[in-house]
Every structure is written in C-alpha cells, then in structure tokens.
Amino acid sequence: MPSFVDRVVLHLAAGNGGHGCASVHREKFKPLGGPDGGNGGRGGDVILVVDANTTTLLDYHRAPHRKAGNGTAGEGGHRNGADGDDVVLPVPDGTVVSTRDGEVVADLVGVGTKLVVARGGRGGLGNAALASTRRKAPGFALLGEPGETLDVILELKSVADIGLVGFPSAGKSSLIAAVSAARPKIADYPFTTLVPNLGVVEAGEVRFTIADVPGLIEGASEGRGLGHTFLRHVERCSALAHIIDCATLEPGRDPLSDIDVIEAELERYGGLAERPRMVVLNKIDVPEARELAEFVRDEVRARGWPVFMVSAVSREGLRELTFEMARIVSAARAAAPPAEPTRLVLRPTAVDDEGFTVTRERTHDGERYRVRGTKPERWVRQTDFTNDEAVGYLADRLARLGVEEELVRVGAQPGDEVVIGGEDAVVFDWEPTIQSGAERLGPRGTDTRLNG
Q1: How many domains does the chain have?
Q2: Binding positions for Mg(2+)
Q3: Residue ranges at the known binding site
Q4: Are residues 10 and 33 in the same domain?
Q5: Are residue 285 and residue 241 in the same domain, yes or no?
Q6: How far apart are the first and last CA of the chain?
C-alpha cells in the first residue's frame, strides 16, 4: 500500500432531501384544524477544505466513495425534518479539483479554502407550506430532491518556492536533509525517492520551502521512470535548481549532458520555461567530483545561470546556495500581486426567460416531445405520482409556466408521447384538456380532472 498519493478519483454523493409531510391538525373540538405537515430537511453537502495537517490524498485512495447524510422527512405539528450531515473532506494545500473530462473546477490554495463540490437535495415542502387561499387543505406534499452525484479528480501540486530537479541519486534528498529539518529516505541506488519531499529552509530573515521531484530520466515526460508522475509538483515553484551528480560513474553521463537531458524533459512537459534556473554541482567532497565541477563551472555559467559547488555531506557551499535561493524567492514574492483571499469562481446555471425548451424527437415508434428545463425537471422529481392531487398540482405548475402552450405551438397532438427530463425522464401521453384549476378537487388526495 503506498504511503503517498497525489492523484485520486473520488466518487461523491450528496445527501437526498427529506420528503415533506401531508398532515391535518387534529385536536378535540377542532375537527378542521387545517394542514400542519412540516417540510423535509435539506440533504448534506460534500465539502472540500484545505487543511494544513493534510499532506497526501492517501485516505481517498483507500476509500474513494464518500456520501453525505440524507435529510429526514417532515412531521405533523409543523415539525420540519432535520438537515443531513455535511461531509467535510480535508485536502492538502495545492489540490486541483477537476472533472473526468479534464475541466478544472477549482484550484484550492490557502489553508481554510472551501469548495462545496456536491450539493445536497432540497427538502420537500409539507402541505402546510403548500396551502393557499384556493387550496386550503392540500392532501399532498412534495418529495425531497436527490443530492448531486459526481466523480471528481483530485490532483496535488505541492506549494513550494524552489523545485529541485535532476537524475536519480543526484543527491536531491540529501540536499534537502542538509539544509532543512526534513529527513527523507536516502539510499545509494536509483529511485530511492518515490514521493516528493518538502523541506523548510531559513536563510537570514527569509523562510521558504524546497521540494524535489523523484528522479527524472530521459523520456520522463513521455512516461518513462517516475519523474513524469511528479512533474506537476514543480509547477508552482518560483525557481528550479538543477542538482548535478559530479561523482557519477555511469558511462555517457557528465554534468552538461545531464543538464541538457533534464531541460529537454522540462520543455516537453511545458509551462516551466520562464522559471529562473540555478545549477548545483553536488558531491564535491569526492576529489574527482570537485575536479569535474571546477572544469565545467565556467561553461555552465556561460549559459547565464548561477552555479554553486556544494557537498551535502561536508555542507560546503550550502550557505551561499541557500542565500541565493532566498534572494530569488524574495524577488518573486515582491513581484507577485498583493495577497488576497482565495476566491472560488461560481458558475451558476443560466436562467432564461422561458425556463424550458420543447423539442420534437423521432423514435422507432413515431414522434415524441421532450421537455427540458431546470424548473420542469425539478418539479417532476418533487411529485408523488401515486397521489392524484399531487399530479394535478404538477399539471397546474407546468401550465402556468407555459409548457402546454409551447407543446401546441410545436405541433403536439392529444395522445402524443411527452417526456420531461433526461435519463430519468417521466413519460406520459399528453392530454391538453387537463387545464389549470387544482382548486377544483374532489376528496383529499384525488383530482377529479384525472377521472374518466
């Protein structure tokens, strides 16, 4: 089982709203007490919140299915149902939320940033709330709406100031251990680092973070090795530092070719060309490595990048390196716009004047008419089709919205098949003689217009 996970698919389900209650007040000597059914409770939301103590998405890798609580039904005596419990999911700073289609929903940066990723369903109205001067004692209530269900992808992009890049065993983890309090796993073989490591460094009055990317190799941007998986962790860095192993004995390897290979992979990954660079010639505690570093130093410097000769073992050159990193970080912070509270962009569904559309569809059985719209589809979900009076109330609402007039306009005939909604649609044979007038009802729970 992995100890670090930076990409997961979450299957989320918000809570369903509770049903409204159809109840009549009963009390001695008060036979006509009136409707007193309460409303159903709201379904719980699924909320993502940035938590400073969360550093991995491992919990969601192990348990990717999360569901909020359902609202409870209303009761008589004007008692509303309880709201469902929200599910609050802590995520690391720097988590990007996107759909399966790749559309970014939110970039969660900053401790405390919240996103309601799945909203709970509304509770249904009880018959007390549905009473009016024309409908004094409704014998029905509205059903609670289902909560949203969706899949989202969470991707963690580490929030670090300096990103360390280089071949496996270049000494990135050793460098982080030498300049910070971090204690990453270190060994003398390739791909020791299987997860990004972060360390906090203090240089003078500047405090900043550094992060390494598990060993890049040629072809990493195309999926070879481990680096392609973790390149996203340097996207937020102010600068990149090439950590070069000057003591490697591998054939065909030298500091300049190592830099060229890593730069080629960064270019193929994209989006990192503007980041300042520095080159760290590492392991100069080895005599041969020091000679090689001195030999190539001027040639690397000619590329316009600052060059540092260091040893994570003897700590030589680390002070100069960390202060240069601090200078770059300070300059980047000064150039950045003033910090503002993170704002999430909300994209509410556009509301048009009509609120619905009616389209003609051809099927193997003939023609049918499909009604789509936020209001009609919500009203259908709220309707108890076992209650004739509730069905009549739905017919009234659709008629007032203008659905019947639009069906006539597009050519619908009595008996034609009408569909309201998408996948979970309600299908019925249209009968235009059912007109508005739910106040002309028979016994409670019935609608005389549906008889015959």
Answers
A1: 3
A2: 173, 193
A3: 166-173, 191-195, 212-215, 282-285, 311-313
A4: yes
A5: yes
A6: 66
